[in-house]
């Protein structure tokens, strides 16, 4: 009746932006990501007959969490309520996608606590219903999400890369990505991006296979700019960058070290490089607050 799971956040190399079914969170395009070792959520779920409603830690979206628990209760044929305790390894206000690690950890912990024996595919599909990007935090390492499911392309030790997150202060209130997805198709560039994706995805998969950082870097920067272009031209437009985000993009673009940027739905810049160049990238970014991530395993019981 009680289980604890840990799940990583992930950085999207090919982004999920827009969906063909909003309620079921079926994405408009496949996406590819890497799990992050230093950005994790640990969640304990305990079902007990004594509870009259779900008890969820302060500061989390209780309605969205309860809706997700209902899906798992229904599958298990259980009417029990539970206590959910969640701890993020990164500050909640950090603008790191805590919904990915959060719903992945919640899914794995709640399924185990209910005695459900779900395959990785089923866990990813359930996590997706809580938050789309959460399905990529279920399998290990480098992950591809297509349609209902996500699967591992390569384990974490396939390639020693880093995601060095530069924490950027944001004064503007973040518009939730859920709302943003629903308006993505209002951008005149939405279909242009979708048309460009099959080739871009093939390039990224080749770069991962060949461990070619320059190829990977060029693809992720192109994809990041293309997705933000769509975001900025949809209606209403979404601007996630701050001046500091752009400063970091320009600094990285100088290519004094082999490092490349990508940005999700927030102001933080993610600087991607190989492990052997970590110290040089840290030096390049000195004076800023950094979170250094390696590729990580997916969600699991602890
Ligand atoms: C820009 O997974 O947060 O980070 O399904 O509504 O929870 P919901 O959206 P979410 O969207 C993430 C968007 C992104 C790109 C990505 O992670 O692929």
Tell me the layout of helices and strands.
Blueprint: E1 2-14, E2 19-21, E3 26-27, E4 31-47, E5 55-56, H1 62-76, E6 82-88, H2 98-113, H3 120-130, E7 142-146, E8 149-154, E9 161-166, H4 177-183, H5 190-210, H6 213-233, H7 243-253, E10 260-262, E11 269-274, H8 278-284, E12 290-293, E13 300-301
Parallel strand pairs: 5-6
Antiparallel strand pairs: 1-4, 1-13, 2-3, 4-6, 4-7, 7-8, 9-11, 9-12, 10-11
Helix pairs in contact: 1-2, 1-3, 2-3, 5-6
Bound molecules: ligand DP6.
Bound molecules: ligand DP6
Just name the CATH architecture of the largest domain. Answer: 2-Layer Sandwich
CATH-defined fold name of the largest domain? Ribosomal Protein S5, domain 2
Structural class: alpha+beta
Number of domain units: 2
Residue-averaged pLDDT, rounded? 95
Radius of gyration: 19 Å
Q: What's the number of extended β-strand segments? A: 13
Detailed description of the structure:
The relative contact order is 0.19. The chain starts with a strand and ends with a strand. Strand 2 and strand 3 (about 25) form a beta hairpin. The chain has helices at about 60-75, 100-115, 120-130, 175-185, 190-210, 215-235, 245-255, 280-285; strands at about 1-15, 20, 25, 30-45, 55, 80-90, 140-145, 150-155, 160-165, 260, 270-275, 290-295, 300. It has about 300 residues and is α+β, with helices and mostly antiparallel strands. The protein is built from eight helices and 13 strands. The strands form three sheets. Strands 1, 4, 5, 6, 7, 8 and 13 form a seven-stranded mixed β-sheet that branches. Bound molecules: ligand DP6. Ligand DP6 binds near residues 97, 178 and 264. Keywords: ATP-binding, Lipid biosynthesis, Lipid metabolism, Lyase, Nucleotide-binding. GO terms for molecular function: ATP binding; diphosphomevalonate decarboxylase activity. It is an enzyme of class 4 (lyase). Its EC number is 4.1.1.33.
